[in-house]
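Long-time lurker. I teach an intro course on protein structure, and each term I like to show students one example going from raw sequence to a predicted 3D structure in C-alpha cell notation. This year I'd like something fresh instead of my usual example. Would anyone be willing to generate the C-alpha cells for the chain below so I can use it in lecture? Attribution to the forum is fine with me.
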Amino acid sequence: MRLDGKIAATSIKEQLKKEFASLNKRACLAIVHYDDPASASYLKGRLKIAEELGVEIKIFNVDEKQTTEDLISLVLDLNNDANIDGIMVDRPLPKQFDENKIINSIISTKDVDGYTSLNLGNLVSNQSCLPSCTPGGALRLLEYYDIDLSGKDALVIGRSVNVGKPLSLMLLNKNATVTISHSKTVDLKEKCKTADIIFLALGRANFLKKEDITDNTIIVDIGINFDENGKMCGDASKECYEIAASYTPVPGGVGVMTNVVLMENLLKAAKWNTK
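-- Reply from a regular --
Happy to contribute to a lecture. Here you go:
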C-alpha cells in the first residue's frame, strides 16, 4: 500500500485551516532565514502552506556581517513579542554562527521546529513538547493510515539529531521496540529483513534493495537524494515498492508532511500564546 503524503496532508490541512480560523488572532511564524539554496526551497514550501492556512510569516534575513550575538538578540526580542507565536532558524547558517546557541535561545513554547534542548529533553521524558517536524511528519503519516506502532519492531537507520535520534524517542513513546542503526552497524541488511517497520534516514540513494525486505515490511523513507539522472529518490530503491506491505514514496511521502507538522506545532504554540 502506498502511504501517500499528499493525500494525508490535504486532509489534515482542511482541519488545520478551520482551527487557525477559530483563533482570536492571526497566527504568526517568525523565520530567521539565511539564503542558502536548500533553505530557499524549504522557505517556498512554508510560504505556500502558510497562505493556504491563513498564517502570517515574518522573515528576518541573516547578513553574513552579523554575529551569533546579533542573532541571539533578535531571537530574544521575538521571544518577548506577543505577536509572534513561533520561531524557527533556517539551517545551515554560515560557519561563523553557533547554531546551537542561537536555536537554544528560542523559548521552548515558540520552538516550532522542535530542536531546543528543552523540547528534546521533554521528548526523552515523554512530556508534552513540540516535536521535531521531519520525524513528526513520518509518524503523522503512519497515524493517518491507522498503522499502529505499539509492539512493532522498528528499525531506524540514521542517528542524526535532526531525524534519527528524535524519531527513535518518538517511537519508544509510541511503545515500539526500537533499534537505532547507522553506517557502522554490523549486518545492517540482515536487521532489515527482521524489522516490522524500517525508517530510512541515511541519506544514501537507493540503499535499501528488494532482497533486504519481506512482503510484511513497512518502509518509511525519509531520505532525500538525487540519482545519477538527477531525479529525486529516497534511501529505498523503487523496486522495494513492489514487495513491501506499505511504503512512503519519494517524492510525495514524508517530505510533504514536514510542513504540516510545522503548522500543527504553530497552532499549538499560538493557543499557548493566547492563554
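Some talking points for your students: The mean pLDDT is 94. Strands lie at 28-33, 56-61, 86-89, 153-157, 177-181, 197-200, 218-221, 225-226, 232-233, 246-247.
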